[in-house]
Amino acid sequence: MHAQVGDTLVAESNRTGTAAKRGEIVEVRGEDGAPPYVVKWNDGHEGLVYPGADAHVLPGSQ
């Protein structure tokens, strides 16, 4: 996975009927865009994320 500040991290839910979480990547701590990322989620919370297989990155603030 590769990301840069301003990209959107989407973490898909593994539960039926539950929406995916989306947040803006505000800091990249890995080398060359690799995780972990500091993400500001749409609900206002911010945290360090090591994305799993159910996550993907969208370029820019989508």
UniProtKB/TrEMBL annotation:
Domain DUF1918: 1-57
Name recorded for this polypeptide: DUF1918 domain-containing protein
InterPro entries, per the entry: DUF1918
SUPFAM superfamilies the record matches: Cell growth inhibitor/plasmid maintenance toxic component (SSF50118)
Residue span of region Disordered: 1-23
Domain of life: Bacteria
Organism of origin: Nocardioides piscis
